[in-house]
Amino acid sequence: MTSGKHWVGSWTAAPAPAEGAALSNQTLRMNARLSIGGDTLRVRLSNAYGVRPLTIGAARIGLRESGPSVVAGSERELTFGGETSATIAAGALLLSDPVELPAAPLSDLAVTFWLPTDVPASFGITGRYARQTNYISPPGNFSAERVMPVGRITDDWFFINGIDVLASADTGGIVALGDSLTDANISTHDVFCRWPDELARRLIERGGRPLGVMNQGLGGNRILHDIRGDSGLRRFDRDVLAQPGVTHVIVLLGTNDLRNRWAKAEEEVTAEQMIAGLKQMALRAHARGIRIFGGTLMPFENETFLVGAWTPAREAVRQSVNAWIRNGGAFDAVIDFDEGVRDPEHPTSMLPRYDCGDHLHPSDAGYNRMGEIIDLALFD
Questions:
Q1: Which of 100, 151, 221, 344 is most enclosed, with most CB atoms within 10 A?
Q2: Rounded to 5, what percent of the chain is helix, strand, coil?
Q3: Residue 257: helix, strand or coil by DSSP?
């Protein structure tokens, strides 16, 4: 490693089980937008939810041009321990060797890899819903093709877990730990309206200390109970503490704990239980010297995404948790997403212009608003 430099995550996708997916002798071209740039990169591939080893037959990275094409001359072969192919053990992570590829901040990259074997749904495919377009080839190895043939498109990121840059010693990293409100569910595809995207744009525009932004949002995620992947408490070490270069974390979790989408009596949570979980995250971050900011839970009165999930009793729990986030002193600072998007005339609901229409998820404008209200001085 270059003296005085270290690895910092510039883009991430939290691993989770990809339901119903199946692949066989196909090439995947997965697109990712960096936050900070750099001249030397590495790629992380995850088999976190696989039940058997995953073979990577070949892999490349390049600057994305448009659609399934890569900018001519930017293609770079990825190697793993000097080899052009690799096997990822069940449940494990694979880091590529460093590769020289100058990429500016907010660059769009294409990571392409060939899966030469059958990967049926029973394999346990690792992925994450992307809200952007990615590409899967017809059968065959097309990893070296600048314009990859497309068998089908997907709005999942399969197996790709992160892209890191070799950055200056003063470069930090911000992890956004959340659920679909951080993943930006219901937002427009391919327009990068997630609030961590807006935060990354604002940090680049401001200049000063470079800070990578790592979006570890996961639709459906909860503080206390597993659903479509591990709970926030279970994945905190992997998705926050283990991220390269992390110096700050923003936690926005708890809405799905309240909604209890499966209506299991044993999973109906109290404010005290949610607060205890958030306290544990703060303690674990501080033990590693990481500053942690608490995001208040946003209003969702009479949501239509899951009819009946909002109740006055659950609203009372939300208010209690938010009061603790604001005043409990566990976090280094508070980011008041609730105050930023709620309707001042009806504070148990979002302002209509920030509401996508289901009264749970923000609109594109709402997601951008969330990124706009974060005080950048928190990261100085």
A1: 221
A2: 25, 35, 40
A3: helix
